[in-house]
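[09:14] KT: can someone run the structure on this one? pasting the chain below
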Amino acid sequence: MRPVNDYRALAGRVRDHLGQSHRYAHVIRVARCAEVLAMEHGLDARKARLAGLLHDLARLYPGPRLLAECEARRLPVGAFEREHPIVLHAPLGAALASETFAVRDPEVLSAIAKHTVGAAEMSPLDCALYLADALEPGREYDERAELWALARRDLHGAMRAVIANSLRYLERKKIPVAPQTLAAAATFKVDRGEVPSLT
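[09:31] RB: done, structure tokens below
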């Protein structure tokens, strides 16, 4: 399929693909936040906005479809993903960005693939999208605004704080933590018992 360079036209295609106004509003907010973080930190704002717009292409797929489509593409599916297939929407979304929207940029595809559970190795663009998804203004939790301010100042510090915050939430709710998230926590030297200072 021929790539679409016109952002408005691409956004329309994403809206049609998603088929849900709530999810579409979220991806637009994430695209804007990713673009802001990219500009603040000297990254490619166009790539960040594109990754944000396309990051949730498979988010509304049910678990069996996520598993089937990942297996059909020979995408890695581990024991955690079989138990929690929703996390597969990220790598499958990267595949759909390539197949359906003709995205070939490996940096954009990497950011999409890693935006949900993170990874041991994350580029600055990966981090920008991960943080934009976690901190867009539609997310309603007490620390969001302060974490967003931190993200605009310090990508690495914000990754550490957001991952720590996520781990505490998952542990409080007794939700298993993805191995990739634990690997990201190790990379960013997250202390699982304490959320880093936001100041």
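[09:33] KT: thanks! Residues 21-40 form the longest helix (20 residues).
[09:34] RB: yep, looked fine to me
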